[in-house]
TrEMBL record:
Belongs to the IMPACT family. It comes from Shewanella baltica (strain OS155 / ATCC BAA-1091). One of its GO terms (molecular function) is ribonucleoside triphosphate phosphatase activity. Residues 19-124 form the Impact N-terminal domain. One of its GO terms (biological process) is regulation of translational initiation. Residues 142-176 form the UPF0029 domain. It comes from the Bacteria. NCBIfam families: IMPACT_YIGZ. GO terms for cellular component: cytoplasm. It holds the Pfam family Impact_N. This is IMPACT family member yigZ.
Length: 176
């Protein structure tokens, strides 16, 4: 099980023209399916009239196989969304979403050409994508005497724990 992993700390946009079609690739932080839908809706609003809005996301840890999804959005099956998802999963970055907007330029690319076109911007963007380390935290409780409190707080600070609550009674209850 992963204790930490990289996540995007800001969004990035890569734009390229491939055989007269315009491809605009967006990479962004995405920690839930709802967040992904909001960003996709915003992109559709900001880039109206596009032929396709293909997408993929990994909303959890990089190796998560549950919080993932992809869409070909009308392109031939398996030519956009699935390859995009494979690129995201291979980048070893969690909580990442991708949308590629295509404005059709009149030249058919074929399935292989579509796969290359939809993944090209993502590959370029993932190299440039600023990330930060996400440390996984697990909730815990501790019961100690007043005399032990200083040592316990010091130990929790050493392991980068975050103290959420302290209750003072006959003894001290710490939630961290």
């Amino acid at each position: 099980m992963l204790e930490s992993y990289s996540v995007p700390c800001e969004a990035i946009v890569i734009e390229e023209e491939i055989k007269h079609s315009r491809f605009i690739s967006f990479l962004f932080h995405c920690d839930s399916f709802d967040k992904f839908k909001l960003v996709l809706t915003d992109i559709k609003r900001d880039y109206p009239g596009a032929s396709h809005y293909c997408s993929a996301f990994v909303a959890g840890a990089p190796n998560d196989s549950v919080l993932i999804g992809s869409s070909d959005d009308g392109e031939p099956a398996g030519s956009a969304g699935r390859p995009m998802l494979a690129v995201l999963q291979g980048a070893n970055i969690g909580e990442v979403g991708a949308v590629v907007v295509r404005y059709y330029g009149g030249t058919k690319l074929g399935v292989g050409g579509l796969v290359r076109a939809y993944t090209s911007g993502l590959r370029q963007g993932l190299v440039q994508l600023p990330t930060r380390l996400k440390q996984l935290r697990y909730p815990a409780k501790l019961h100690c005497d007043y005399a032990q409190l200083r040592d316990v707080e010091h130990l929790l600070q050493q392991v980068d724990a975050v103290i959420i609550d302290k209750q003072f009674a006959e003894a001290v209850d710490i939630v961290f």
